[in-house]
Amino acid sequence: MASFECIAAAGKSIERLLSACFLEAPVPVSGKTTKAILVRTEDFKTATSTIQPPALSVFMYRVDFNKTTRAAWSAVGSLDGRAHLPLDLHFLITPWADDAEIEERILGRAMQCLETTPILSGPLLSVSGTWAPNEAVHLTIDDLSTEAVMRMFDSLPTDYKLSVPYLARIVRLDGRRVAGSPEVTALIDGMIPSATP
């Protein structure tokens, strides 16, 4: 069962996967270690302190319920008494470097990594999410227009940078407690409904 920490654990799993890929030869920036780093909106404001180039920022900009599986998981919840919320996590990956060519190399390596390992399961998932043994997160490029990405940067405290939107699905957030059966306090036997005039 995935706990409330599954959202953060999915982000951490993506960060860890990308950082591991950046260490494999051929590295995107020769002579330097490129890191993937989870960021929030405020980190774009002070990119020099949080995001140390060469780097790839992983920014979760939206969390939404999965419209395809929501009804099915609600039906499961009605049977097992536990809430199940299937989520889609929307990320933006952005390379940071001193010149355009290196940024494009970082982005290319990241996309190659996510295409090579599009399913995170088992040891690829951060243990902080307390995942079920059969759970997996699928990573794919999100269907987001360039205009929508540029509009997103209008609301961020930085100028537009080359970025690619990704979608992590399905991250299932399970309820904490199983709802118990209502306690029976009285049993009335032999009642006959009265006739109505």
How would you summarize this macromolecular structure in one to three sentences?
It is built from six helices and six strands; from the N terminus they run αβααβαβαββαβ.
Describe this structure in words.
This protein has one domain (about 5-175). It has helices spanning about 5-25, 40-45, 45-50, 70-80, 100-115, 145-155, and strands spanning about 35-40, 55-65, 85-95, 120, 135-140, 165-175. It is built from six helices and six strands, in the order H-E-H-H-E-H-E-H-E-E-H-E. The radius of gyration is 23 Å and the shape is elongated. The longest helix has 18 residues, at about 5-25. It has a six-stranded mixed beta sheet. Helix 1 packs across helix 5. It is of the alpha+beta class and about 200 residues long.
Describe how the helices and strands are arranged.
Layout: H1 6-23, E1 35-39, H2 41-45, H3 47-50, E2 55-65, H4 70-80, E3 84-96, H5 100-116, E4 119-121, E5 136-141, H6 146-154, E6 164-174
Parallel strand pairs: 1-2
Antiparallel strand pairs: 2-3, 3-6, 4-5, 5-6
Give the tally of β-strands: 6
Q: What structural category do the secondary elements indicate?
A: alpha+beta
Strand content: 15-25%
Query: Which regions contain 5 or more consecutive residues with pLDDT less than 50?
Result: none
**What does the radius of gyration come to?**
23 Å
The mean pLDDT is 84
Largest beta-sheet characterization: 6 strands, mixed
Q: How many angstroms separate the termini?
A: 55 Å
Shape: elongated
Number of domains: 1
Tally of separate helices = 6
The helicity comes to 25-40%
Strand order of the largest sheet: 1-2-3-6-5-4
SSE pattern, N- to C-terminal: HEHHEHEHEEHE
